[in-house]
Structure formats: C-alpha cells, structure tokens
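hiii, so i know i said id send this last week but things got crazy w the move. better late than never?? heres the sequnce for the chain we talked about at the cafe, plus the structure i predicted for it. fair warning i was half asleep when i ran it
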Amino acid sequence: MKWSKLRQWLLPILLAVLILLFWTTAAATGTQVSRHTDVIRFGGDVTITKEMLVDDAIAVAGSVKIDDGATLQGNAVAVAGDVILNPQAQIRGDATAIAGEVKKASDAVIHGTSTSLIDGKFGIMQSIHAWGTWGLLLHLYLVSAIFHGLVICAIAIIGILLLILIPHYLQSVAVTIEQHPLIAAAWGLGGTVGLMLLSTLIAGSLLGALVLPVANLAALLAILVGSVSMGLVIGQTSFKHRQFGFQLVAGIFMLGLIGLIPVVGGMVYLIVHVFGFGGILATQFEHKRLIWFGQRRIHPELLPQSPTNHQQPH
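okay and structure toks below
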C-alpha cells in the first residue's frame, strides 16, 4: 500500500485506539492551570473555570464546558459531545461540535465561528456514554463483522466467476501454494517488498504517476486471485471428495470465519495475502517449472493436456 494512502488512515486509527485505551482515564482535569496550555480529555468533559488560562480545549466522547464568566483563549472542539457556554462565558476562537451541539447562554460570546457537524439530536453522544467501553467495543466489532461478511460474500462471488472463466489457472495457483509453500511465501514477501520499494523510489514523479496506478491495480488483482486460490487450497484439504465449486466456496467462508477472530484473524489474513500473492507470482514467473531445493519439477496443472500424459516427468 502506498504511504500516502496509509497516511490517510493513520490519524483515524490512532484516534480510535486512543478513545478505546483512555476511555475511563483523563488526560486533563479541572484543576487550576497557572499558564497558557492546551487541554485534551478522552472519555470525559473538559471544564474551563475563571482561574484557568487555556488556549485550546478538546474533548473526545465528552463535552467542553465554559463556566460562568470564564474565557477560553483559543478554540473549543467536542467530538461526540457538546460545547457549552454558561452565562458571560467567552470563546475567543472557534467552537466546533462533532456529533453534538454548540449551546450558549444569551450573554455568552463566541468571537469565532460556531459549527455543529452531525447534530447531537441523533443521540450519538448519549448512546456512546450508555454503551460504556465494552459496549462500544462490541458495537464496533459488530459493524466490522457485518462489513467483513459482505466482503467475504463478494470474494466468494468473484471466486465462482474465476472458477468459470479461468479454472485451469486457478487450480495451478492452488497447487503451487499447496505443494510449494516456501516458494510461494518467498515470492509473496519479495513481491510485497519490491512493490513498496518501487512506490518509494518513483512516488511523486511522472514515472510514478504512470506506473504506480497500474502496479497497484495489478497487485490488488493478484492478491484477490491469490486469496481465492488459498480458499481453494483450504477447501480441497478439508473437503477432499466434494465438488470443485463447493471446495472453493467452503474454503473462502472458512477463511471468513477465521477473520472474525480479533487480532488473530488479521494475522491470518496477512499470511493468506502473502501466500496468495506469492502463489500468483510463482506460477507466473516460474513458468512451467518450480524449483524445489535444487530439483526441477514440472507443475502438473501447467502441462499441456493430452491422453498420453499421465505421469509427471522428472
């Protein structure tokens, strides 16, 4: 994956992790602050009093509250919470509430702009507080499980189409992975590292603009076909005497079930992608021969089909 794409997801992922880790802990308290500073709190409210000299105040899964007559020197941001200004309170910067509301007394003043994104009337903040830490984790898991199930169904449909269109090639990749796992793993790791190095070297250049989209698309297709082939390998191992199509679909859904296991499922999927990608590369670039500890063996499914060809030549 290109670093620019990874960087887009990095901040939301880190934010989610921080919310989960520090849900019941405070990064800041309502004690007196003797100098200008920023206050950030996860899983609780930030309260600004008259005695506090605060520049920016940020609350995640909580509200930012400005006490009577208190002044916030900078901006107030509440995520899944409200920005609340009591009588004679001031915010010299902007007030922003995401999944919440900006509430102010009639004599309170916001010198900057007041913005509400995803109005709190939807009950998001109340729901998150009602769930608690484990409830939030459970809801996140259920959402990810539903999305995961949809992806597995899509891969199964694609696998059936590939089975109809290119059954011989799909079986060849599966045999490569099954009979030569070390070679497939080596090709998968090498191909992944090579693609990352290529992206790093030519990113931002004209050559990169021309080559990288094609290379990334080819890698994505290779990983997809390789993952389907891995499902075929698992299905053939588990259901040896069933039909080819049943083995394919059953193997893909078995992988899907493993993927539902937190942490372990992600690690298994990473291994599956490496082996699947490597199986594609090994089948493609080793042509009709695979090297196994210095000995050359003809890949049976890559041989031309003929009535007299029943044995594997040495």
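btw The first helix runs from residue 3 to 21. thought thatd interest u
miss u guys!!
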